[in-house]
């Protein structure tokens, strides 16, 4: 048994770690489970957690092996059990001592993983993936999977290093520059490279924050400092002009699928470029009189202050709800997902619905000489662009888009300002 004392912010925190004989319930073989007991007292609040060691002993065996071990010469199996229990207790102490702020969840995770996991890139990726799945952030978990698969392909095919052997120390600035060249040779865009390397950067930061790796191995930073600089790319803003919006709105459809795709595309557009995931999550209880309010799912977990977005209903949006909304005025407005679905089922259904809408809106676009890559992504940018052209202030658009900062909105409009200037120049002689 060992007592660990920490002093943090002038507060003393005491942890007592010991091997514990759980004698409340015997197993069928008459033995009891041996556990690791961790006692924590902080600000007069006592917490105790027990972690299984995977070892079962009788009271006599426990006394012989653990309690009176110093007085006896153990041999064979008893000696092996003693060493195993001593190793568990020792590792528990090391893990606790390395934690700046003690947390039972992190303690358990670090205690029972392999010693090599702390420096293993794949392990840390999988921990982030599991955490996001647990929180219902399936899309975020998928993005980490895509990133890990990309690094797996490069590491195994180009560097001849199995992904389960890839360590943080291996990923240097040179390694990342080689990865960038590899991605370019495969025809991948710098936007994709930027997304994947920024995701890797998050994993590095997590490992550093957990005291699993030293910050000196961090490979990101300025090139002149010998670090890897993540490519900075300008997003291609895809928006329809006023004329194109009119063409799309008045376009004839060939079937119900195209009619539904067009209805939901313009529902998103009119509702301030509302993401289809938020459309799917919209409930009848969110609607009050001539408006509805919701929290944007994409940014909900990223900000401490939750901002409500309010959308005023128009004759058009009311008609879309009337045409495609559930007859039972409880639960979700649209039948994209079901109230009984878990987060994984919701993710799959929303993804399939988005693919369905995009597939059929592209058919309408092609038949009307509109951009062939038209998708629901365009609805949000079309709302922003045309609001600006109609004289809306940047502050108004920023609030409508639920951006955290005005600078985000300004960056959002990169590429639109030249068109606005051209329109203004051509109108100067329109007396």
UniProtKB/TrEMBL annotation:
<dbReference type="Pfam" id="PF00589">
    <property type="entry name" value="Phage_integrase"/>
</dbReference>
<keyword id="KW-0238">DNA-binding</keyword>
<keyword id="KW-0233">DNA recombination</keyword>
<dbReference type="InterPro" id="IPR044068">
    <property type="entry name" value="CB"/>
</dbReference>
<dbReference type="Pfam" id="PF13102">
    <property type="entry name" value="Phage_int_SAM_5"/>
</dbReference>
<dbReference type="GO" id="GO:0015074">
    <property type="term" value="P:DNA integration"/>
</dbReference>
<dbReference type="InterPro" id="IPR010998">
    <property type="entry name" value="Integrase_recombinase_N"/>
</dbReference>
<feature type="domain" description="Tyr recombinase">
    <location>
        <begin position="235"/>
        <end position="425"/>
    </location>
</feature>
<protein>
    <submittedName>
        <fullName>Site-specific integrase</fullName>
    </submittedName>
</protein>
<dbReference type="InterPro" id="IPR002104">
    <property type="entry name" value="Integrase_catalytic"/>
</dbReference>
<dbReference type="InterPro" id="IPR013762">
    <property type="entry name" value="Integrase-like_cat_sf"/>
</dbReference>
<keyword id="KW-0229">DNA integration</keyword>
<dbReference type="InterPro" id="IPR011010">
    <property type="entry name" value="DNA_brk_join_enz"/>
</dbReference>
<feature type="domain" description="Core-binding (CB)">
    <location>
        <begin position="123"/>
        <end position="208"/>
    </location>
</feature>
<dbReference type="GO" id="GO:0006310">
    <property type="term" value="P:DNA recombination"/>
</dbReference>
<dbReference type="InterPro" id="IPR025269">
    <property type="entry name" value="SAM-like_dom"/>
</dbReference>
<comment type="similarity">
    <text>Belongs to the 'phage' integrase family.</text>
</comment>
<dbReference type="InterPro" id="IPR050090">
    <property type="entry name" value="Tyrosine_recombinase_XerCD"/>
</dbReference>
<dbReference type="GO" id="GO:0003677">
    <property type="term" value="F:DNA binding"/>
</dbReference>
């Amino acid at each position: 048994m060992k007592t660990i004392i920490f002093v943090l912010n002038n507060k003393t925190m005491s942890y007592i770690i010991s091997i514990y004989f759980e004698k409340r319930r015997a197993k069928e073989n008459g033995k009891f489970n041996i556990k690791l007991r961790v006692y924590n007292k902080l600000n007069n609040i006592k917490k105790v957690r027990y972690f299984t060691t995977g070892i079962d002993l009788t009271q006599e065996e426990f006394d012989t092996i653990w309690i009176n071990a110093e007085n006896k010469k153990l041999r064979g199996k008893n000696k092996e059990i003693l060493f195993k229990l001593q190793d568990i207790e020792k590792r528990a102490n090391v893990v606790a001592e390395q934690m700046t702020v003690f947390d039972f969840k992190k303690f358990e995770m670090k205690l029972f993983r392999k010693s090599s996991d702390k420096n293993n890139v794949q392990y840390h990726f999988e921990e982030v993936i599991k955490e996001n799945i647990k929180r219902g952030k399936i899309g975020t978990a998928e993005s980490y999977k895509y990133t890990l698969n990309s690094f797996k392909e490069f590491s195994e095919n180009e560097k001849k290093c199995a992904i389960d052997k890839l360590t943080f120390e291996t990923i240097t600035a040179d390694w990342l520059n080689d990865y960038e060249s590899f991605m370019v040779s495969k025809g991948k865009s710098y936007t994709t490279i930027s997304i994947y390397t920024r995701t890797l950067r998050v994993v590095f930061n997590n490992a550093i924050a957990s005291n699993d790796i030293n910050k000196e191995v961090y490979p990101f930073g300025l090139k002149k400092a010998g670090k890897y600089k993540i490519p900075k790319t300008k997003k291609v803003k895809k928006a329809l002009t006023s004329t194109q919006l009119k063409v799309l709105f008045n376009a004839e459809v060939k079937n119900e699928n195209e009619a539904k795709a067009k209805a939901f595309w313009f529902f998103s557009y009119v509702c301030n470029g509302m993401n289809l995931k938020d459309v799917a999550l919209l409930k009848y209880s969110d609607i009050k009189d001539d408006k509805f309010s919701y929290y944007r799912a994409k940014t909900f977990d990223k900000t401490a202050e939750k901002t409500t977005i309010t959308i005023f209903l128009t004759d058009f949006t009311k008609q879309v709800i009337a045409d495609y909304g559930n007859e039972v005025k409880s639960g979700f407005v649209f039948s994209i997902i079901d109230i009984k679905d878990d987060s994984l089922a919701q993710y799959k259904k929303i993804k399939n619905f988005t693919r369905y809408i995009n597939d059929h809106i592209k058919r309408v676009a092609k038949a009307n000489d509109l951009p062939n890559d038209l998708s629901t992504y365009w609805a949000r940018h079309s709302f922003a662009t045309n609001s600006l052209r109609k004289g809306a202030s940047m502050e108004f658009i920023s609030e409508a888009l639920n951006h955290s900062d005005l600078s985000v909105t300004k960056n959002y409009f990169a590429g639109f300002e030249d068109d606005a200037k051209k329109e203004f120049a051509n109108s100067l002689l329109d007396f």
